[in-house]
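Input sequence (424 aa), recorded before submission:
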Amino acid sequence: MPRLIALIDVNNFYVSCERVFNPKLEGVPVVVLSNNDGCAVARSNEVKALGVKMGQPWFEMKDLAKKHGIIAYSSNYTLYADMSSRVMSILSEYSPNQEIYSIDECFLDLTGFQNQSTYGHGIRQRIKQCTGLPVCVGIGSTKTLSKLANHIAKKNPEFSGVCDLNSLSPTLHDEWLSRIEVGEVWGIGRRLAPRLNKHGIKTVLDLKHANPKRLREDFSVVMEKTIHEINGTPCIAMEEISPPKKQIISSRSFGITVKDLASLEESVSSHIARAAEKLRRQQSYAGSVQVFITTSRFNKPEENYHNDFKIKLPTQSADTILLTKVALWGLHKIYRRGYKYNKAGVMLSDLVDSEHRQTDLFGLRLEDSKSKRLMKVIDQINARMGKGTIKLASEGTDQLWKMKQGSRSPGYTTDWDELVSVSD
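Predicted structure, token format:
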């Protein structure tokens, strides 16, 4: 029985989320900006047509925005995460084997299913009806081919949002692959494409006919697997359960430059709280804590300063209070007066699960049990009442350094005070 993998991808996800709750944005050029409204992280098709690139700084496109009426929104990550959760929940009903690849992409194993194209159109219609979000569906015999099929569905309206490469004749199948640049292949991108071009490989069809063993020598085993995948031989398995992260990083640029230690302490404490919550969510413990601070890279050389400090813990922990104490101790070690800092962050590493956690020989089991119960209660209250309902005093209250979100849309689905109101 031939293997069938579908990739479902939400079109222009962040922009589409904004349009769901503001239909007036349909057909209007819209861009969603990164932290502190820095650069474009999502663009509507209208903005792409104007030549705006992914990651292009907002200040570079302000004149273009004024001329063409581009509307800019600050990133509303809470809203996007909630909309993603709704989409993935619906998709889980369509196959027993699901892999959530990213916030807006999902693989489904449809092996054994009949009328895959019809099934794909049904998925599109259901997602649109239940969430208002437009999706495209790509179907192929491998994950790499399903990615390419999704790309074809997005770029070619004649497919009506669903491309099933398995249903195409071999000649037509290769014809479509010949139209796609090799840089569009999953895992290759702009970095490896120029090197492949030097080998005479410019399209996906060229890569399909390349010698996998030879390219493995020049590149890596991943390239060999990619070639086999394009030829229909599965080499990349479905991950039905996402593996736990090996590192957890929490970092964000400040809305204003920061000079005082107190503001840096608030920022580091906030990042630790966020990282520790993620740590507990995947039921892991951290063996080390790293804290870092940096000034803007656009400063003059004499005004630049960046440093980090890593602390090895005697016993792996997931306790926010303990991790915060350790991180703040490290911050005091690297802080230098007189500099204008624009970013701080933390990284939890040497992660282990509960089964492989090595406790301290002299550690007190009672204290460990109290810590677990306390963290569980805090997580439950914050999940129910909203992020930051309970937090450490070291996180501060005003947090004047927080990132700029001057054009953030309301939390339509995540905040009781910002629910959509319908009037006559």
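Checked by second reader. The CA atoms of residues 31 and 119 lie 32 Å apart.
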